[in-house]
Amino acid sequence: MSTATAGGPTAPGRPGPSAPRRPRRVSALRTRPWAAACFLLPALVLLGALVVHPIVYSVHRSLFDASGTGFVGLGNYVELFTDDGTLTAIRNNAIWMAVAPTVCTALGLIFAVLTERVRWSTAFKLIVFMPMAISMLAAGIIFRLVYEQDPQRGVANAVWVGIHDTFDEASAWPGARPRPGAGLEESDGSYTTTAAVDAAGPADLPLVGVPPQDLTDAADARAVEPSGGEVAGTVWVDFTKGGGGEPGVIDPGEKALEGVRVEAVKDGEVVATATTGEDGTYALPTEADGALLRLPAANFAEAYNGVDWLGPSLVTPAVIASYVWMWAGFAMVLIAAGLAGVPRELLEAARVDGANEWQVFRRITVPVLAPVLAVVLVTLMINVLKIFDLVYVIAPGATQSDANVLALQLYLTAFGTGADQGVGSAIAVLLLLLVVPVMIFNIRRLRRENRW
């Protein structure tokens, strides 16, 4: 029978030495429950005072009427889903949740990927993230000015009008109209003489309604006498500063209207056209003899004033755009941090295998960043459910009801005219119920990641 020597094999039939057991970890909550309770108590008190108590009180208050003394059960909840204002708010919140987080996350992903390829990426990220340093109230005031209807004040309409006028020329004298008694009648914005004209005398066309500031650079009107069978005349502003002057007569100092289109019409067809010169005169060929003169509506169409960004149909997209301006930088920074952890070997291997940049982005970058994208998307979804400041500040009173969201409806119902805190508490409970599924999804995702 052999025996084990020092450092040699163990003798047959004799068990080898067992591995040392790891000490069993015992929870401090079991060994010293009172110490653990003392440490947890401040946090539990704050949690109860700031979270649990308001939730319980809101649920309790939502079962009572406006005065808080009459029990109405689920009556306030029934009112929620029969009130037009609340239904509009619910619909707008659904639009916000579907559009704003998605657009912010997509832009953040695009910015994060593209800035990896530029040398000034830090400066670009700083510029994109900078709106996060601005409060919601300040951002609302900024965009209220951006969306002003007047192109002289609103940046959005100034740009839009500039683009529009580049491709569609503005009218010569918007708002101008014939002087009463001048023998011109209106039809669909155009003005036509009531009697035919001939080459025997001047066919003058006196107008009024032009603002004095628009005539600062206008030349003085000049009377013209037809010659050679032409139909000629003058289009001018028949108004003398300080009063005086004779109606229908070109008085000294009265201003010419340059660029006005004049048409000669016979039997409903245009036989000749002319445009007034700097002194307001025009001349039509002999074909115009015996025709009616028409000033087309294009001469007097009101200047294009841009888009009503804060009107009923566009106010919600306009407010969402301001939110995206603020929060796209937040999404970009989080996604860029996740992108920094993507193994470069994977990307290079895909490129070596022949994948183009779009395939690398779609097949590798996006799947690897999926957990980060989920975090950004869920965070923004919770955030937009509470949106209040931007809508309250940007949307004007006339269209605030069209841009209404649940947080704003809660404020107006609970603290506005005819305050009803019972219905307001019901809206708060509804908001909580909408947030809970998103939070449950986020918690499950975090637990799943921890198990991995």
TrEMBL record:
Name of one Pfam family that matches: BPD_transp_1
Record membrane topology: Multi-pass membrane protein
Extent of Low complexity compositional bias: 1-11
Positions of the ABC transmembrane type-1 domain: 90-442
UniProt KW Nucleotide-binding keyword: no
Cell compartments where the protein resides: Cell membrane
A single BP term in Gene Ontology: carbohydrate metabolic process
Keywords: Cell membrane, Membrane, Transmembrane, Transmembrane helix, Transport
A single cellular component GO annotation: plasma membrane
Disordered as annotated region, ranges: 1-25
Record flagged with keyword Transport: yes
Ranges that cross the membrane: 34-56, 94-114, 126-147, 323-343, 364-385, 422-443
Family: Belongs to the binding-protein-dependent transport system permease family.
PANTHER family: BLL4140 PROTEIN, DIACETYLCHITOBIOSE UPTAKE SYSTEM PERMEASE PROTEIN DASB
Protein name stated in the entry: ABC transporter permease subunit
